[in-house]
Amino acid sequence: MADERTASTINDELVELHVTQLPQKFYHCAHVSIVARTQSKLDDALKELEANRQSPDQVFKAFSFSLDTAKESAAALQAASDAHGGKVPDAVFACAGAAKPMYLLEMQPEDLSSGMTNGYWIQAWTAFAAAKQMVRENKKGKIMLVSSTLGYMSLIGYSSYSPAKHALRGLADSLHSELMLYGIDTHILFPPTMYTPGFEEENKTKPAITRRIESADEGLTAEQAAAGLLSAHITADLITSLFRASTRGCAPRSNAALDFVLDLVALVGIPIWRRSVDKQVLAHRAEHREYLRTKGLVD
To answer: GO annotations under biological process (predicted)?
Structure first.
């Protein structure tokens, strides 16, 4: 018989993060519901789930919701709950998000506001709904959020995205502190570049200087990022681990000795990295000025 525990992934471009690994690694024989905006992606994800089925008794469901409002997120969670006897999932993975990198001078007001919607609220509303329902049902569940390396630092081109990812870090810290009152665990992942369809979409607007700076980032596949999250690692690569160790704030440590070593490396390495990035940006000044002229943004 399948394990009665359930997991729900709330995402769009990142549906593929979990569908091949949840049934195998999170809870053996778990029931799984997935939520995304795009039905075609849901259909593909269901096929992946079926390919990784661990028991004939498992229940796999998919629901199409936008998730960018409190109402839609609550409705999505209710749909996922109804599919499993009306009970809130034991674990909710909030992975939705999208970036549209560009220069600040190119942005319209809606680009800044949508950056917060697509980078923060689209996960925050899900966590909000899940936490309330878990407490009502006295469910000692888990809430997983997905930020970014850019939730620890930032660079040119990400002024609409990085603030949202920093906000998710603040939300995770707050929920970790508050929800322990109810036995609910909160986790957050800070992945680097992930090679998904969303990454290809980002590159359509990403400034050339940003791409050059990021060229040193080897990135992760969706499967590698999922493995990190399901192993309760908040970082999944060395670069992000260095930023985490140097900016950990009040977050609990999983390995104090390793964090100490990383902190020492970051103490030397991050200032060098920062100066290198600043040098690249300043060297780009003339090229950037010409770019702005061609766009009609400066005289």
So the answer is: 3-keto-sphinganine metabolic process; sphingolipid biosynthetic process
